[in-house]
Design goal:
This protein has about 300 residues and is α+β, with helices and mostly antiparallel strands. The chain has 2 domains: about 1-75, no CATH class; about 85-305, Alpha-Beta Plaits (2-Layer Sandwich). Helix content is about 25%, strand content about 20%. The chain is built from 11 helices and 15 strands. The strands form 6 sheets. Strands 14-13-12-5-15 form a 5-stranded mixed β-sheet. Strands 1-4 form a two-stranded antiparallel sheet. The chain starts with a helix and ends with a helix. Bound molecules: iron/sulfur cluster (SF4) (2 copies). The site of one iron/sulfur cluster has 14 residues, from helix 6.
Length: about 300
C-alpha cells in the first residue's frame, strides 16, 4: 500500500509538472513551473490548453491557474541540488593514452545499470582529415559552467550544482527532450524503453546522487558519479581505465589524479596544451582534453574493430 501511495504521489507530481509545461499551448519558459491549477470556483471565460500526463491536450479556464511561488525556492534549498561544499569538480581526458579499451564504458554501464545503446560514456573514432592520424575520444557529459541544457528545462529537472556538476532529477523530468536539443555535445540520451535494472535498484529510494532508479520516458546522462565523490572516491570510469586516461579532481585545490598519478591541474593543462571541446561555443565545459600527440598506443586495426562490434 505504501508503494502504491508513493506511485500515486509521483504520478500526481508528473501530472502537475506536465500541466504546467504546456500551459497556454506554446509557452515553455522556466517560470511555467510555478503555475498550478487553482481550486477557485470563479471562471474568467478565457481558455488555455494544458497537456495531461497521457499526452492529451485539454482546455481549462485561465482562472484555474494560480502562481505557486514557493516551488523554486524549495528546490534551490535542496541539498542534493547544492552539491559537495567547497568543491569544483573537473575532469581531464588524455587522448594520447586512449587505445579504445572501453573499460571506462563498461564500468560506467555496470555501475549505473545501463544496457542497450543508452551509454552515458561513448568512445569515438576521430580523424580530423585524410592526412592526419586517427585517435580515440571518450566523451562523457562535459558538465559545462554555462550549460545550455539547464536553461531550457521547463521544470527545473536538470540543474547546475555549486560543485560544478550538471545533474538531472529523473523524478522531476517530464521527458520533453528540450535539453537534448540544446546540448551541443549530444551527451544526453532518452529512455524509450523501460530500463532493465536489478530489482533492488528499481524499487530503491530515488536520489539524484545515483540517478537511480532509472525510468522510462526521461533523459539521462553522465553525472560525474557524485555518489563516489561524496565518499572521497573517484568515478568508475577513472578507476577502470587501464591506461590512466581519465583524471578527476578539484579545481579549487588545483589537483587531478587518475588514481596512480597526480598532477597540478593548471600545470598539466599548460604543459600538455589542454583544451576544451568546442571552446568557441562559450559553454565552458568542466572536462578538458589533452591532445592525442606522442601517443602511448598507436591506433591499430584491432582497436578499431572494437568500435564496430
Ligand atoms: S527532458 Fe530535459 S529539458 Fe525536458 S524535463 Fe527532462 S531534464 Fe528538463
Ligand atoms: S563520471 Fe561516472 S557517470 Fe560519468 S562517464 Fe564516468 S563513470 Fe560514467
Amino acid at each position: 500500500m505504501a508503494e502504491e501511495n508513493n506511485d500515486n504521489q509521483t504520478n500526481d507530481r508528473r501530472n502537475f509538472l506536465r500541466a504546467g509545461l504546456f500551459l497556454g499551448g506554446s509557452a515553455v519558459a522556466g517560470t511555467i513551473l510555478s503555475n498550478t491549477l487553482s481550486a477557485s470556483e470563479e471562471t474568467s471565460g478565457e481558455k488555455v490548453k494544458v497537456m495531461t500526463a497521457e499526452g492529451q491536450l485539454v482546455e481549462v479556464d485561465r482562472s484555474k491557474i494560480k502562481i505557486a511561488t514557493d516551488t523554486l525556492s524549495a528546490l534551490a534549498n535542496n541539498d542534493e541540488r547544492k552539491g559537495i561544499p567547497g568543491k569544483k569538480w573537473v575532469m581531464v581526458i588524455d587522448l594520447s593514452r586512449c587505445k579504445n579499451a572501453r573499460k571506462c564504458q563498461s564500468a560506467c554501464n555496470k555501475a549505473h545499470a545501463l544496457t542497450g545503446p543508452n551509454q552515458w560514456l561513448k568512445v569515438y573514432e576521430m580523424q580530423d582529415n585524410e592526412e592526419s592520424s586517427p585517435y580515440w575520444m571518450p566523451k562523457p557529459c562535459l558538465h559545462c559552467d554555462n550549460p545550455p541544457c539547464t536553461k531550457v528545462c521547463p521544470v527545473d529537472a536538470t540543474f547546475k550544482r555549486e560543485d560544478g556538476i550538471v545533474a538531472i532529477d529523473n523524478e522531476r523530468c517530464i521527458g520533453c527532450r528540450f535539453c537534448m536539443a540544446a546540448c551541443p555535445y549530444s551527451t544526453r540520451v532518452f529512455n524509450w524503453e523501460e530500463p532493465k535494472q536489478p530489482i533492488h535498484i528499481a524499487t530503491g529510494e530515488h536520489t539524484c546522487a545515483t540517478s537511480q532508479p532509472r525510468k522510462k520516458g526521461v533523459v539521462e546522462k553522465c553525472d560525474f558519479c557524485p555518489h563516489m565523490l561524496e565518499q572521497g572516491k573517484l568515478p568508475h570510469c577513472v578507476t577502470a581505465c587501464p591506461n590512466g586516461v581519465f583524471f578527476m579532481g578539484d579545481e579549487n585545490e588545483d589537483t587531478v589524479t587518475n588514481g596512480s598519478e597526480t598532477f597540478a591541474l593548471s600545470q598539466l593543462l599548460r604543459d600538455k596544451a589542454g583544451y576544451r571541446y568546442m571552446e568557441d561555443l562559450g559553454t565552458k565545459p568542466r572536462v578538458y582534453y589533452l591532445p592525442p600527440v606522442d601517443r602511448l598506443f598507436p591506433f591499430t586495426k584491432e582497436d578499431k574493430e572494437k568500435t564496430e562490434e
